[in-house]
Specification:
There is one protein chain. The chain is an all-alpha fold. The chain has one domain (11-284). 73% of the residues lie in helices and 1% in strands. It contains nine helices and two strands, in the order αββαααααααα. Strands 1-2 form a two-stranded antiparallel sheet.
Length: 287
């Protein structure tokens, strides 16, 4: 961690340290970000376990006539996602609604880690577990967002070939808006059309991953910049008039940004879910 000539931690060093992943490997392609994987699996277990417990208790609570608040919340989320799928998805698949629910809840939990105080978990990891670095927001790791978007992309290819056949899938990339390659002009334009359609097709997972990553990375950077406001201030400095003003300004800025960020993290989870539904719907449509 970078320090100044007086032994104080610099703002640049503080931010760079918080943006480092706990990694395993030599820094090349096969480097594994252990913290991103750990929190991703942890949040997946939290989502799956809590919703499974709510489903198991649903029948008993309905018989008693007194559903719990969490049970009502789960039913509200399920009905919300189901309504979005019914309004957007035009095909027939039992996979889409569970997929959309999983993506929305999982990505929301990813993003919600951004409102945890930036120094809390890294300090615990460093002082208790001896970890040199720890990033707790999986959606600020490009590997995680690309992994999810590529999974959606592969599902789209699979269902496109399953529903339309390999010939129909290739025809979508080469013939649109043509009807057949029988005419010489249309046959001549097929490679150009394939290039244009391929760029559009390949841009989907890239934009899906970068949108989520960029918004959450920017949000994390703002939290770090707010934390820098009282960097290197000791107890004596915080007790002074200037320190008190800096502490109050930091608290107000952090609170305002955290409240606004709650909207951002929910909106980004919703956008990721809706684009997934749209892409899957396009994969099931015949043109």
């Amino acid at each position: 961690m970078a320090t100044s000539e007086h032994g104080e931690q610099t703002a640049t060093g503080y931010i760079v340290h918080h943006l480092q992943n706990l990694s395993f490997g030599d820094g090349g392609f096969w480097t594994v970000h252990l913290d991103s994987l750990f929190f991703s699996i942890l949040l997946a277990g939290l989502f799956g376990g809590s919703f499974y417990a709510a489903a198991r208790n649903a029948a008993r609570q309905r018989e008693a006539g007194l559903p719990s608040r969490f049970q009502s919340f789960v039913e509200l989320v399920v009905e919300f996602v189901d309504s979005q799928v019914k309004e957007t998805f035009r095909g027939e698949s039992r996979l889409i609604a569970p997929l959309a629910l999983t993506i929305f809840c999982w990505v929301f939990l990813f993003n919600a880690m951004d409102v945890v105080p930036v120094d809390l978990l890294p300090a615990i990891g460093e002082n208790v577990l001896g970890l040199h670095a720890l990033k707790v927001v999986p959606s600020t790791d490009l590997n995680i967002t690309f992994g999810m978007s590529l999974t959606v992309f592969l599902l789209c290819i699979y269902f496109s070939i399953k529903i339309k056949g390999l010939g129909g899938f290739v025809a979508e990339l080469t013939l649109q808006p043509f009807s057949s390659p029988s005419k010489p002009v249309q046959a001549l334009l097929m490679p150009i059309n394939f290039l244009l359609e391929s760029i559009t097709f390949l841009a989907r997972p890239v934009s899906l991953a970068l949108r989520l990553y960029g918004n959450l990375y920017a949000g994390e950077m703002i939290f770090l910049l707010i934390a820098v406001m009282t960097l290197n201030l000791g107890l004596a400095d915080l007790a002074s008039f200037g320190g008190i003003l800096a502490g109050i300004a930091q608290f107000i800025a952090g609170l305002v940004w955290a409240l606004f960020h709650l909207l951002v993290i929910t909106l980004q989870a919703f956008i990721f879910m809706m684009l997934t539904i749209v892409y899957m719907s396009m994969a099931h449509e015949h043109h």
